[in-house]
Amino acid sequence: MLSLSHDFADAVPALATPWAAAPAPQARLLVLNEELATSLGLDPSFLRSPAGVQTLVGAAVPEGAVPVAQAYAGHQFGGFSPRLGDGRALLLGELRAPDGALRDLHLKGSGATPYARAGDGLAAVGPMLREYVMSEAMHALGIPTTRSLAVVATGREVQREVALAGAVLVRTASSHLRVGSVEYARGTGDIAVLRDVVDYAIARHHPEVSGDDVPALGLFRAVVAAQADLVAKWMLVGFIHGVMNTDNMTLSGETIDYGPCAFLDAYDPATAFSSIDTAGRYAYGNQPYIAEWNLARLAEAMLPLFDDDLERAVAMAQEALARFRPLFAAARSAGMRRKLGFADADADADADAETVGVADDEVEALAGELHEMLERARADYTSSFRALSDAARGDATTLSRALGGDAALGVWLERWRAHAPDPVVMDAANPIYIPRNHLVEEALAAASAGDLEPLGWLTTVLSTPFTERSGAERYAEPAGADFVAGFRTFCGT
Which positions does UniProt annotate for ATP binding (predicted)? Predict the structure, then answer.
């Protein structure tokens, strides 16, 4: 059996609306993440049973659970919405994993709540499986993320442009506290509610700052650092979130909400796949700037907890926010150093002295010139970086082909090889397999038609992104130019 607590509902009642999931008349398990279930101390055999499936869709409320829809606000495409919240989601409760960590168990697509804003609160099979695939691929890439425990077909139809089969996603997270949670609390006008949210975030994620002179400022600094590291990791693998509203930025530093996300194919910083991002606000190259902008909104919401004097509070917020850019630059630079085959600058004494000794400005120059060649050729981002390993071993044929025979490559290779890049370091930093957009669409189309085998193969390959698999060559191949040119993503709401 499954036992859950109700930590969030108890700690922040002003942001927790008790609610029940909509009926799922013919609940049927589509996919279960047994590895995740086991790591959470859950019994996969129970989750596969009829009683377990009813629990996964919220029909059978676990012992101790108080399911709630969470309230939050958000800046969406720059405009403020004071009341958003879980319109089609429920926090079933929290469970204590064997490692001692508290994890949310959360449903998506479980029916309309008081925050549904005239929506039906439902979700279709395709978008829920998409989040399953993408979030688990991100986890395998080493990027902090919410994770997907299961997708369950509900037996209900979901009316969009056409009638679609309904489904519920079951996901876990360190918490579902967002920048928008703090914005909502500030919007109540009740400082006690704001303090409840911030105190709970500190206790849940950063208890080490509870003894600071200004604990709220310590929390803000920690969120700045977590988001700088997270977005740097996104950039290094070519991930585009697609809808970086403040209600989609967690205080834990985990990636959340995989609606219109995608991965770069042809390298272009202006790439934006989302059908609703017509101005490219959340394009690949804009993501660090948007993260900083979102963090500024968080600081504004937290100002009363920094200092009673507004001028001093603003100065404290500005000083803390100013850490974002250097922290992001350092995280990206460290990651790019590894992608180019150089050991970390602070590597131990046993590492190759020459690769450790490559200066940061030289790494940045090499990275900048490589990205210029990638952009000129509209080269595939993932496979081009992976081809560096062969180039370091003496064969630059694949890389040269990817870059369209760019005349600048020869000089660049000579300069790069002079620093003795280590292909083993590159192999561990540059994935072979990512959830390529054409493969994800292919697997989701098959799954929506009842064939889950392509999805199973895809998730298996993506679970070990840095290790070459015999027979998996097509999973490493870029999409055709026609697919890339016309590809769009959708929120799935």
Answer: 85, 87-88, 108, 120-121, 171, 178, 257
